[in-house]
Specification:
By secondary structure, the protein is α/β, with parallel strands linked by helices. 44% of the residues lie in helices and 18% in strands. The relative contact order is 0.13.
């Protein structure tokens, strides 16, 4: 389920022990949750802009909380839909998602430590960070490599236009 739905439902249903919000979050709900919250998004989540929704959602959440921003990740990168996405999108999601569940549902301390380790495919445009114990920690600092971002965006736009052009020729 999407991040908005899971955060909203977790506020209504006390049986839910933790939340993993993919792409977005209901900011009203997330700030009122008293359970661990993880928000996972990507650089190219063009449907839900991480700067407008995911990052403010993380900021509004109570600890323990984590924000994972996947390098070049897309909105549908969490699914098996045909969508331009980096090949590591699922691996990074599962790396942090499984560690989160093991940490907070199984109380596995090693998995909790994994949550604070940077993955090589975390974003360099937006920070990934966590607050598991009352202390904010940056997992991977943004380096501001806008040239990489711009190059990827141009390639993405070129491919999108090419696909639209080829489809128009089919009919």
């Amino acid at each position: 389920m999407g991040g908005f739905a899971v955060t909203d439902e977790a506020l209504k249903d006390g049986r839910i022990k933790t939340v993993i919000a993919l792409s977005d979050a209901d900011i009203y709900a997330i700030k009122n949750l008293k359970i661990p919250v993880m928000v996972i998004t990507g650089d190219f989540d063009l449907i839900i802009n991480d700067n407008l929704v995911a990052i403010p959602g993380y900021n509004a959440a109570n600890p323990p909380k984590e924000l994972v921003v996947i390098k070049f990740g897309t909105h549908n990168g969490f699914t098996n839909l045909i969508w331009p996405m980096p090949p590591w999108n699922h691996n990074v999601t599962l790396y942090y998602l499984s560690s989160w569940l093991d940490c907070f549902l199984r109380e596995d301390k090693e998995s909790c430590k994994t949550l604070e380790k940077p993955h090589r495919y975390l974003s360099t445009l937006s920070e990934s960070k966590c607050n598991l114990d009352g202390k904010e920690k940056v997992i991977k600092r943004a380096t501001g490599r806008r040239k990489t971002f711009t190059a990827f965006l141009l390639i993405f736009l070129f491919l999108a236009v090419l696909i639209l052009y080829l489809r128009s020729k089919e009919g």
